[in-house]
Amino acid sequence: MSQVKLNIKLLEMTQNAISIIYAACRQCYSTKFAGEIFEEKKDDMKKQEEFIKKVVKSGHESPLEHVKFTFAIEGVSRALTHQLVRHRIASYSQQSQRYVKETNFDYIIPPSIEEDETLRDEFVKVMGKIQTSYNKILKKFKEKGIVGEKANQDVRFILPQAAETKIVVTMNCRELLHFFEQRCCARAQWEIRNLANKMLEICKEHLPAVFSNAGAKCERLGYCPEGRKFTCGKYPLKEDVIKKR
Ligand SMILES: Cc1cc2nc3c(=O)[nH]c(=O)nc-3n(C[C@H](O)[C@H](O)[C@H](O)COP(=O)(O)OP(=O)(O)OC[C@H]3O[C@@H](n4cnc5c(N)ncnc54)[C@H](O)[C@@H]3O)c2cc1C
Known about the structure:
- Helix content is 50%, strand content 12%.
- Helix 1 packs across helix 2 (34-40), helix 1 packs across helix 3 and helix 8 (173-183) packs antiparallel against helix 9.
- The protein has a four-stranded antiparallel β-sheet.
- It is of the alpha+beta class.
């Protein structure tokens, strides 16, 4: 068992993403069939990208639902995935603590604990104790004839939220924009914010027409909707912007 860090890999994104979004947008306003529009404009990337940028800016977001990204993620805590799966417009496949034994579990150490030697030592000691007890309970279960998933599903109750997990996530572009608005914000918890920022980097690289201006909600709004107590100060507060009008 040891400390691990975030690792993220883009498994796949929808092919011909730009032309699909473009054809879907155009279908709304055209007498033509999207199938024709898709073929006609396929080679004029610049025109399609410019059009999509305008559409995203205007808030006409449903055409973005036709394009999705699939990420493989590891080196994150169960505390993170508990927050991640609250985003309902997405698909998830997570490593199971019933089917996969945790006889040598890895864990995530929060930076506030890692940077302090005394706290770090305490943290690592507790992880070791949990591991010892986990293995002891599994052994006792075996003597009683309780094995496999029946044993795993109960002994996992003593595992910490820090326990490392792996998950595959698929989100469409509209949901990704929403996810970034919430989770790239300085108010979001540090671990999911790190993940969201990494996912955003990947999305920007692969589909800048949609994601070049994406990020925390203040990036779109031009002001901070959080209260004075919580703002990071990057943008003026909503209340201050309204007062000035
Ligand atoms: C800083 C921060 C602090 C948080 N603190 C807490 C907390 O203390 N406790 C807690 O429980 N959660 C907390 N959350 C989680 C939060 O309440 C949401 O559950 C989570 O962020 C998912 O957001 P969502 O529902 O907008 O997203 P998604 O589930 O991805 O939904 C996307 C959008 O689809 C629409 N939608 C989806 N499902 C429905 C539905 N059933 N009905 C109507 N519209 C729907 C909504 O417009 C929604 O915004 C926190 C989140 C953040 C970012």
